[in-house]
């Protein structure tokens, strides 16, 4: 009897500990959801809708097979950004062998969800690679849902910009450079040819490659898909149709031949800020930053936004999203992934407050911090609560 009472008491304490509310971010640490399981939402983005945040990310499994889509896109919800409730799989992969573009074993990366006011639908975009084709397909794909948490219905995938030149394209670049196919890769001549449309011309008819991506909805309700294109050499920004489910055909390049991946964007004081990474696969590298007064450019390259120890590897992480904190003007959280490709489910999350020095976005490591870092006093004393 006594023993069972003790067990009941112990269970109650354990239950309390599990239910204990988190009050801070702890970048890089295990981040338990409401069930005590490490969040499984990699390459994530966040939607804020009717007073709740929804986190969407790649659901990974144990072992290297988990680098391809085995389950789908996982969704969590939260009121405070620290405590996340498991909402389950928002977009499920189709059964292996079904022939669907999103069948189990395809690659589904960096999902981003936005709400379309005109249709009342939630629209998810993601980077799609077809099963068995490695990263060759380079497509961007769309799914829709009536509810934020899903289930999302797969619509289709795209190679954007088919048959359309970028807005800023010099008409002279429409003609191939003599011998361009035989230019040696990574030479200055080749880089110049890339910046002047080598791959844009190559992919003009089928449409442009689209790998690492994000979605941005502007103040006027127009939305854009920003993705690594041209063999990851150049970022493209492509306008979405009014229902956010397709492309208008208006697009432009960002940082031609700059070799950027992992685009994450925010708008502050009428300017657009972009944080990206270099291209070293799952291994981290130094982040880059850019500013522009129009989403169509010109984009000015700034410095590595990260400062302090491990700035050269972005604190061992790669950007995925710049999250606007609801109700706080110009407060953005830099969200990044610490990839663990040998056991992808272990991947960690680096969330840090994004600061600005003039136009320059800045990041500083913090072991533990909370949203008061965005208050005037918090900004002064540094980020640790
Ligand atoms: C990274 C990219 C990830 C994933 C990975 C595969 O550079 O940002 O989303 O595609 O490469 O190696």
Automatic annotation (TrEMBL):
Recorded hits in InterPro entries, A to Z, give: Glyco_hydro_43, Glyco_hydro_beta-prop_sf
Q: Name the Pfam families for this protein.
A: Glyco_hydro_43
Give the source's domain of life in one word.
Bacteria
Q: Which UniProt keywords apply?
A: Glycosidase, Hydrolase, Signal
Q: Which residues form the signal peptide?
A: 1-19
**Recorded family membership:** Belongs to the glycosyl hydrolase 43 family.
Official protein name in the record? Glycoside hydrolase family 43 protein
């Amino acid at each position: 009897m006594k023993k069972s009472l003790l067990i009941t008491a112990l269970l109650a304490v354990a239950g309390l500990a599990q239910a204990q509310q988190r009050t801070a971010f702890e970048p890089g640490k295990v981040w338990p959801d409401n069930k005590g399981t490490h969040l499984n939402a990699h390459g994530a983005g966040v939607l804020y809708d009717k007073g709740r945040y929804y986190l969407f990310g790649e659901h990974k499994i144990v072992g290297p097979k988990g680098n391809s889509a085995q389950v789908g896109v996982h969704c969590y919800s939260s009121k405070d950004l620290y405590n996340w409730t498991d909402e389950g799989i928002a977009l499920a992969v189709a059964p292996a062998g079904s022939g669907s573009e999103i069948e189990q074993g395809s690659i589904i990366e960096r999902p981003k969800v936005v709400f379309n006011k005109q249709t009342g639908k939630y629209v998810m975009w993601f980077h799609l690679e077809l099963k068995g084709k490695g990263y060759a397909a380079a497509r961007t794909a769309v799914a829709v849902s009536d509810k934020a948490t899903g289930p999302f219905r797969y619509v289709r995938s795209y190679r954007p910009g088919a048959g359309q030149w970028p807005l800023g394209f010099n008409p002279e670049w429409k003609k191939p450079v003599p011998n361009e196919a035989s230019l040696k890769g990574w030479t200055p001549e080749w880089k110049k040819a890339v910046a002047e449309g080598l791959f844009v011309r190559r992919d003009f008819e089928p449409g442009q490659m689209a790998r690492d991506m994000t979605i941005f909805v502007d103040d006027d309700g127009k939305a854009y898909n920003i993705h690594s294109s041209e063999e990851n050499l150049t970022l493209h920004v492509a306008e979405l149709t009014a229902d956010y489910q397709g492309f208008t055909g208006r697009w432009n390049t960002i940082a031609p031949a700059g070799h950027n991946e992992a685009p994450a964007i925010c708008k502050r004081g009428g300017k657009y800020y972009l944080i990206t990474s270099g291209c070293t696969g799952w291994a981290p590298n130094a982040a880059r930053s850019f500013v522009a007064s129009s989403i169509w450019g010109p984009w000015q390259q700034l410095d590595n936004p990260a400062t302090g120890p491990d700035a050269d590897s972005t604190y061992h992480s790669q950007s995925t999203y710049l999250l606007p904190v609801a109700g706080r003007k110009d407060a953005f959280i830099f969200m990044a992934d610490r990839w663990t490709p040998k056991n992808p489910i272990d991947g960690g999350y680096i969330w840090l407050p994004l600061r600005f020095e003039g136009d320059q976005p800045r990041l500083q490591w913090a072991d533990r911090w909370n949203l008061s870092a965005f208050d005037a006093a918090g900004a002064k004393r540094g980020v640790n609560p």
